[in-house]
Amino acid sequence: MSRTRTRYAPDRGLTGRMVTTMFLIGLLYVVLVGVLIAALSGSWPIILVITGGIFIAQFWFSDRIAAFSMGAKEVTPEQEPELHGAIDRICALADMEKPRVAIARSDVPNAFATGRSERTALVCATTGLMRRLEPEELEGVLAHEMSHVAHRDVAVMTIASFLGVLAGIITRVALWGGLARNNRSNDPVGVALMLIPLVSAVVYALSFLLTRLLSRYRELSADRTAALLTGRPSALASALTKVDGQLARIPTEDLRKAEPYNAFYFMPAFSSKQSLGRLLSSHPTLEQRLEQLARISADLSRP
Questions:
Q1: Cα gap 31→202, rounded to integer Å
Q2: How many CB atoms lie within 10 A of CB 262?
Q3: Predicted local confidence at residue 161, as pLDDT
Q4: What's the DSSP call for residue 265?
Q5: Binding site membership for Zn(2+): which residues?
Q6: Which residues form the active site (predicted)?
Q7: Which residues contact 43 (CB under 8 A, 6 or more apart)?
Q8: Binding-site sequence positions
Q9: Which is nearest to 101 in space by CA: 130, 133, 135?
Q10: Single pTM value for the model
């Protein structure tokens, strides 16, 4: 059985936001399914089975799919002693179970965590990150990722992001169905299929906004609790600065491949400094993160 408490500082603000996000996401999910049932009343058993099955599959397998998509390969202590050693030290500090440890063969310097709980958690660092960071900096990044596991916000983000994916699929299917019936405007089913994309688009926009607001806060929370746990906010600040600078030197093609997984990463990868993605980023700005760490460093240095 996995532990329910660790030495990571609790964050009531994060807990409150996660509960609120899950409630609102659940409400949106009910609305979306309700619209589908109302529009296609004769097929409601199939709709419930399909949407319920997709939701359950997403909950159980999404973390594995994400890890596979990002190229994570589990490694043993013999294969990666430095990475395992850093995670062992963090586990001892935090009094938590050791997650599975993985490496992604990528020059993009980054790290991420997946998993529904401590028992199923996986923490992964890229080869590009390990090559560029000093041991204390790497430990700060890994402590940040393990904070996501300890606070269980990885699981919440996985579930919350699913509704947007489902709404996008429904929008495409409904648009195809509506276009197929465009010459039958008096058909009630055809009218319903034309309305579904609008509802789905609204649901997608709201779920996207909710997950972005939660994600930005959870990144600041992970920075804060990792810095307090290790007692070295300067090491994490140094890692943030170094990774941000190194990302600017990564080929655009590699960054574009990484962009879809930014919500999972320690630092978002953008193919352009002017990218619209920065305005809708899942992470706070580098300046916000460094300012918070500077405040923590000042507080820890006081007698």
A1: 11
A2: 18
A3: 66
A4: B
A5: 144, 148, 219
A6: 145
A7: none
A8: 144, 148, 219
A9: 130
A10: 0.82
